[in-house]
Design goal:
The protein has 2 helices and 5 strands. With about 90 residues, it is an alpha+beta fold. It has a 5-stranded mixed beta sheet with strand order 1-5-4-3-2.
Length: about 90
């Protein structure tokens, strides 16, 4: 019998803007901090707070990791794919 799997993680995708930001990161500590925040939202896409907006476009969320000092701005598709719009160091 195969071992039970944990909860399914959301798939992470990056907007063009976020991909460009990712390309500029060369510091290993910054990559680790970003990776930690991405793991959090892949496990719980609703972890971030909803940003003010209307229902005519995707509802953006903001996740802040105060320990690693990272903020992710993202939205979640109907199929639970997390699309990172931008990430900013706080």
């Amino acid at each position: 019998m195969p071992a039970p799997h944990g909860p399914r993680r959301a798939r992470i995708a990056f907007s063009d803007s976020a991909a460009k930001q990712l390309d500029t990161i060369t510091n290993e500590a910054e990559l680790h901090a970003l990776d930690r925040a991405l793991v959090v939202i892949s496990v719980d896409p609703d972890a971030g707070e909803l940003l003010p907006g209307d229902s005519t476009s995707p509802r953006l969320r903001s996740y802040v990791d105060d320990v690693e000092r990272v903020r992710l701005v993202y939205w979640v598709t109907a199929l639970k794919t997390v699309v990172v719009v931008a990430f900013l160091e706080v």
